[in-house]
Design goal:
The protein is mainly α. It contains five helices and no strands. The termini are far apart. The mean pLDDT is 76.
Length: 69
């Protein structure tokens, strides 16, 4: 699922974050999440990568900007 929620540059980070969330769930919730994960399918347009490959550099630029007030 991380592959469809993030652009290629931050996919490993999103996957690690999702794994950490799963790790703190109770066992019944983990089992239910596993069922949902196998049952879900996200429709992602083929052109998404073209429009999102610049997302992480933009986020870094915004996060690194200092506010001079």
């Amino acid at each position: 699922m991380a592959a469809t929620l993030a652009d290629r540059s931050i996919q490993p980070l999103v996957a690690a974050a999702l794994q950490k969330v799963r790790a703190v769930l109770r066992p019944p919730d983990q089992a239910r999440l596993a069922q949902l994960d196998h049952a879900m399918q996200l429709a992602v347009p083929e052109y998404q990568e073209h429009f999102t490959r610049h997302l992480a550099p933009m986020q870094r630029a915004i996060a690194g900007r200092r506010c001079w007030t």
